[in-house]
Design the sequence.
């Protein structure tokens, strides 16, 4: 029985900010080896990107979330520092409530450690690494900070096997850290000390492998685009599968994204080395490749002011709440609708109801609806664009960061019927346009981020 | 079943009044209503009252109805608040008609009041969102303008309605409102003004949207048994129709019509024994320009899909075949939510009794009011006719 990776999903936001934009703004760019970096939309975060990657891994394996027995979420940037986000991640992906859950955080090697952890069990596991680090605007770590996510479906009879593995840890304080309660990365930037804190654990972890030969693909942690090449590892092998030059530092998702890239390129063997500040490293040899479904390409380029705006650095406080507040318990009652548009099939007349409660919209009978999940792809039936200042106040921060957004009624197929839903549109859409339901944050109220599905024009 | 009559109706000026309260505005409306009764009325004759209001300054008030009736000295009688969003006082009028027809009351005060401009724009949007489908529609990021904009997009797509036709609604209603001393935005505008206004929610721009307004309006509804005590030229409530529908637009079968309004209209016509051809004028709920165009179709003023050419033809101008919104409508006269339906009745009463001043139509006999809650979750239509006092009662 060969246990390992059954399939991989990878996702990065489509927007890129070029290094030149930082240079124009600051007179310098402090993240060598990075040409562009991926920028999450104002309503994206590590959780929504994780859903995107998870969806793709399941799709690449042609499996449903209902078959997942263990769910792991690895990130250094959880939207909430405390609060089990695997519940919401699992809800989006339709993972059973009794699946085991694991959260790996606090280190950029969390992604590769989560993978190893899952391989060590006998369950079908979905491992998702997703990250979007941040720093102060003039900090080198901020200049490097990118965004992306990768997910592995792990199980038996896998085409890609996790073989030899090695690990090393050694105290190296001050190299990269984030204090309790802070969202910005920090570091002491002590030249040689910092470099050695990366190089020595990485090389020691590789040295701990039974076989330390280096294949043509090395998926190595990349805090920036230069540090990986300071190690003694083969630079061509690192360059062959790196993503940092285009996506930026994707932290816990960095090595998983490089593994996805190696599989996509057909490398039969990949040496994957995750590094975390503090410092420690984990090296694993991956033999074979698995199917990959990835969305990593750039779609648009943004200027530096737009980048700051989208991060929320130059956005004021949102207005106070009011009478239209939807309480969290009310919100949670409909979580299957928020995350999966779960609708109801009327057993009397066959109509599809959304939300699936109350009387049937067609025959008006009070029935127990049968659950039906609409397709993710739909068509716009009615649409408008809400300009800045025209949105309800709970969306004021989003419009300040993102600008206008569309709102539409979208028709989806659901079972043998159809259902129409009101959705926010990423940017805008017109009547008749095809759209796809994607995970996005709706807003944060009372400190609680609320997630749903929005319509992305296709 | 006894007939019901309107013997008096009046309103405060609509607008933005930092120095007024919901009680003082209601007081002004009642004063004008009492003054409009030909032979006078002692408020002690009032048996019952219904007051429409959504909220006062966005605040939730319990007992808002007795709070305003006690202020005007109506005490001890049954008083009920009616809430059906923007159709609140249209339904309050209907409640009064029901009370009179049933025999439970002979003289009923019905109306509404709203104070909307003592809040920041953000707070108003928060508050107004409560009249829509809050859990899904609003959470997609829409205000009411957004919901009606989606209806406009569907109407334009389905029927070829144009932005110019939407703008013609604004031009007509502002011109009418410029002749109404009670109007909130009593100025004229050009088609160019209305076409080039800033966008609110595409395809709707600022001139396609009504304002938020402070104001109050009331009417006195009396039974056939007592009507002659108050006037010999009453306005008869010829037909009442009301209907409800799904609150969220996405839950309805159509996005380019308001089915509840169409049903309410059919019921009102049937009860009145009339058709749209019998109407001499109408006050319709033009919260957004597309709403007036949909009303033309829902109420049978024109064929379904023909509302754009219908407004363009001039048919709904004061000198057209069916003048619509001679008061200025919600667009120009204003939209104090809880007062709007009763305010439409004030215009109908004024037109049918020759009190409409510079905007008076030539001897109208039959008028219709059309009041919609939210984007169509509730609707009420009244048909009023000029009448003589019932035989044997004068």
Sequence:
């Amino acid at each position: 029985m060969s246990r390992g990776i059954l399939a991989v999903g990878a996702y990065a936001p489509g927007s890129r900010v070029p290094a030149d934009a930082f240079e124009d703004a600051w007179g310098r760019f402090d993240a060598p080896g990075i040409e562009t970096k991926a920028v999450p939309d104002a309503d994206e975060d590590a959780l929504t990107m994780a859903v995107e990657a998870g969806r793709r891994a399941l799709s690449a394996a042609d499996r449903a979330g209902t078959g997942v027995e263990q769910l792991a979420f690895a990130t250094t940037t959880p939207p909430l520092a405390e609060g089990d986000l695997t519940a919401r991640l699992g809800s989006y992906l339709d993972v059973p409530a009794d699946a085991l859950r694991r959260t790996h955080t606090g280190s950029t090697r969390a992604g590769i450690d989560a993978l190893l952890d899952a391989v060590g069990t006998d369950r079908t596991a979905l491992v998702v690494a997703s990250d979007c680090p941040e720093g102060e605007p003039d900090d080198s770590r901020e200049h490097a900070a990118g965004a992306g996510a990768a997910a592995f479906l792990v199980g038996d009879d896998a085409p890609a096997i996790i073989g030899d593995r090695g690990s090393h840890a050694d105290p190296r304080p001050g190299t990269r850290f984030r204090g309790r309660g802070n969202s910005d990365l920090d570091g002491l930037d002590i030249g040689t000390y910092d470099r050695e804190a990366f190089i020595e654990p990485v090389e020691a972890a590789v040295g701990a492998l039974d076989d330390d030969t280096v294949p043509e693909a090395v998926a190595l942690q990349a805090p920036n685009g230069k540090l990986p090449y300071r190690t003694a590892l083969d630079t061509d092998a690192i360059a062959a599968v790196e993503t940092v030059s285009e996506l930026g530092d994707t932290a816990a998702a960095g090595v998983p994204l490089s593994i996805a890239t190696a599989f996509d390129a057909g490398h039969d063997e990949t040496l994957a080395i995750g590094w975390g500040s503090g410092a420690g490293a984990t090296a694993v040899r991956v033999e074979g490749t698995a199917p990959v479904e990835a969305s990593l390409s750039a779609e648009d380029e943004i200027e530096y002011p737009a980048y700051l705006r989208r991060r929320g650095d130059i956005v004021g406080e949102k207005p106070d709440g009011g009478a239209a507040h939807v309480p969290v318990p009310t919100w949670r009652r409909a979580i299957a609708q928020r995350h999966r548009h779960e609708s109801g099939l009327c057993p009397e007349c066959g109509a599809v109801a959304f939300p699936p409660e109350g009387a049937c919209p067609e025959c008006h009978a009070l029935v127990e609806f049968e659950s039906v999940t609409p397709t993710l792809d739909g068509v716009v039936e009615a649409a408008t664009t809400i300009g800045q200042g025209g949105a309800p106040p709970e969306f004021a921060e989003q419009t300040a960061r993102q600008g206008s957004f569309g709102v539409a009624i979208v028709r989806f197929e659901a079972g043998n019927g159809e259902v129409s839903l009101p959705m926010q549109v990423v940017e805008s859409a017109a009547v008749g346009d095809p759209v796809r339901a994607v995970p996005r944050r709706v807003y944060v109220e009372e400190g609680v981020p609320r997630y749903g599905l929005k319509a992305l024009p296709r | 079943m006894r007939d019901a009559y309107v013997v008096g109706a009046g309103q405060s000026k609509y607008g933005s009044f930092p120095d007024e309260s919901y009680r003082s505005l209601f007081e002004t409306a009642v004063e004008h209503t009492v003054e409009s009764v030909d032979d006078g009325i002692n408020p002690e004759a009032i048996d019952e009252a219904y007051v429409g209001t959504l909220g006062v300054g966005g605040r939730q008030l319990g007992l808002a109805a007795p709070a305003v009736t006690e202020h005007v000295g109506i005490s001890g009688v049954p008083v009920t608040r009616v809430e059906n969003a923007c159709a609140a006082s249209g339904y309050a009028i209907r409640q009064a008609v029901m009370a009179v027809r049933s025999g439970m009351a002979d003289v009923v005060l019905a109306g509404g009041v709203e104070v909307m401009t003592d809040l920041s724009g953000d707070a108003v949007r928060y508050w107004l969102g409560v009249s829509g489908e809050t859990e899904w529609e609003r959470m997609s990021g829409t205000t009411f303008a957004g919901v009606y904009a989606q209806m406009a997009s569907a109407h334009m797509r389905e029927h070829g309605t144009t932005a110019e036709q939407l703008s013609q609604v604004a031009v007509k209603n502002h011109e009418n409102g410029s002749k109404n001393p009670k109007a909130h935005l009593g100025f004229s505008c050009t088609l160019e003004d209305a076409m080039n206004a800033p966008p609110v929610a595409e395809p709707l721009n600022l001139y396609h949207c009504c304002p938020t307004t402070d104001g109050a309006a009331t009417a006195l509804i009396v039974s056939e048994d007592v009507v002659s005590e108050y006037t010999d030229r009453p306005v008869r409530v010829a037909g009442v129709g009301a209907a409800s529908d799904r609150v969220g637009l996405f839950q309805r079968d159509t996005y380019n019509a308001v089915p509840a309004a169409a049903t309410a209209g059919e019921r009102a016509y049937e009860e009145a024994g009339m058709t749209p051809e019998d109407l001499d004028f109408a006050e319709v709920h033009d919260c957004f320009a597309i709403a007036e165009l949909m009303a033309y179709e829902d109420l049978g003023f024109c064929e379904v899909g023909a509302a754009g050419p219908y407004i363009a033809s001039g048919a709904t101008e004061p000198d057209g075949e069916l003048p619509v919104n001679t008061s200025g409508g919600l667009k120009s006269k204003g939209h104090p939510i809880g007062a709007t339906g009763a305010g439409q009745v004030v215009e109908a009463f004024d037109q049918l009794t020759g009190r409409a001043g510079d905007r008076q139509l030539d001897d109208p006999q039959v008028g219709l009011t059309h009041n919609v809650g939210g984007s169509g979750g509730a609707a009420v239509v009244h048909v009023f006719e000029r009448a003589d006092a019932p035989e044997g009662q004068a």
Observations:
- The mean pLDDT of chain A is 94.
- The interface with chain B takes residues 319-324, 326, 330-331, 334, 354-355, 361, 381-387, 389-396, 398, 405, 407-409, 420-424, 430-432, 442, 452 of chain A (CB under 8 Å).
- Chain A is about 25% helix and 30% strand.
